[in-house]
Structures are given as structure tokens and as C-alpha cells.
Amino acid sequence: KCKNCFHTKSEHKRAVKTQQSFLVDHSRDDPSLHLDFVDGTNHSDNDFTPRIEGDKTRKDYKEELRQLRRERKEIAMKQAELRETMLRMEVQMHDYKETKQENDILTKDILLMKKDLREVTQGASKACEMNEKLRKEVSRLRAQVRSLGGDPHS
After folding, report:
1. CA triplet 16, 20, 21: central angle to 5 degrees?
2. Which residue would you say has higher pLDDT here, 149 or 67?
3. What pLDDT is recorded for position 19?
4. Is the pLDDT of residue 125 over 90?
5. Element (H, E) at 72
6. Is 105 found in the same domain as 33?
7. Chain segment 6-35, per-residue pLDDT in tens
8. Which spans of this chain does the record mark as coiled coil (predicted)?
9. Are residues 114 and 71 part of one domain?
């Protein structure tokens, strides 16, 4: 790189040649044209610009700085808002996972209760059948006691 500007040496040579040819071609036409190239340092974004148009005033730079600061502030606010949203989402995800675990536990409990209810229902059904069988047996035995001439209630 050139020690006085941002160009590589080959770019610097090309820029100087372009600048010199521009001066030869245009400096007679418009005396307000002036290269911002002084002592091999490039003071403009382009290799050559009219001084009047190319030089930014201090006021322009201050305004640009203010604008950049405003934009940086807006970006920082949006980043903070995004971070806050991310935290809220993280909390919601945590709550969701806890709720899901609780729901899973409740679902398992419900399934166990249904199984227990089925077993109890089956047990009750069997008890009813046994009760009916016992009643029939008691009835049969009473009839047998009567047929033998005894009192079935004693």
C-alpha cells in the first residue's frame, strides 16, 4: 500500500494518471475544478471531485454524525426490544414445558384412575353375580328345607 493513501501502488499510479489527464482535459474549461489529491493523499471518496461539491462542511459532518447516532440509538432500542421479547419467549417456553409436564402427569393419573375404575366396575359386577347366585342358592336351600318339613327361617 501507498504510505500516504489507501491505494495499492498500482492503483495509486492509475489514479495519478487519471487525475493528470482529467486536469489537462478539464481544468481549462472549469477553473472551479480542483482535485482533492494533495501530496499524494486522497481526501475524497473519488480520485477527483470538484472542490465546491466534494468538500463537506463541518455542519454537514455534524448532521451526518447526528443522523448516525439517531440510527445507532434506534438500532440499540430495537435490539433491547428484541432481547426483551426473547426473554419473554424463553419464560413462556419454560412455563409451557412445566405445564406440559403437569399435563402429562395428570394424563397418566387419569389413565390409572380409568384402569382402577374398570377393575372396580368388574369387581362390582362379579360381586353382583355372586350375590345373585347366593340369593338363588339361599332360595333353593329354603325350598329344600320346606320340602323336608322344616322351618326355613330358623
Report:
1. 120
2. 67
3. 60
4. yes
5. helix 58-147
6. no
7. 656 666 666 666 666 555 544 444 444 444
8. 51-88, 124-151
9. yes
Torsion on CA atoms 146, 147, 150, 152, rounded to nearest 10: -30
| Longest CA pairwise span in the chain (Å) | 153
Question: DSSP secondary structure string, 92-134?
Answer: HHHHHHHHHHHHHHHHHHHHHHHHHHHHHHHHHHHHHHHHHHH
Do residues 78 and 104 both lie within one domain? yes
- In the block, cell 360381586 appears at 127
Cβ atoms of 84 and 55 within 8 Å: the answer is no
Expressed as residue numbers, the domain containing 112 is 57-148
Angle made by CA atoms 33, 39, 43, in degrees to the nearest 5: 55
Check pLDDT > 60 for residue 41. Answer: no
Q: How many domains does the chain have?
A: 2
Q: Are 7 and 42 in contact (CB under 8 A)?
A: yes
Looking at the structure, do residues 134 and 110 belong to the same domain, yes or no?
yes
Contact (Cβ atoms closer than 8 angstroms) between residue 5 and residue 12? yes
Residues 74 and 135 both lie in one domain: yes
Output the CA–CA distances (angstroms, integers) from residue 64 to 51, 56, 61, 70, in the order listed.
19, 10, 5, 10
List pLDDT tens digits, range 88-103: 999 999 999 999 999 9
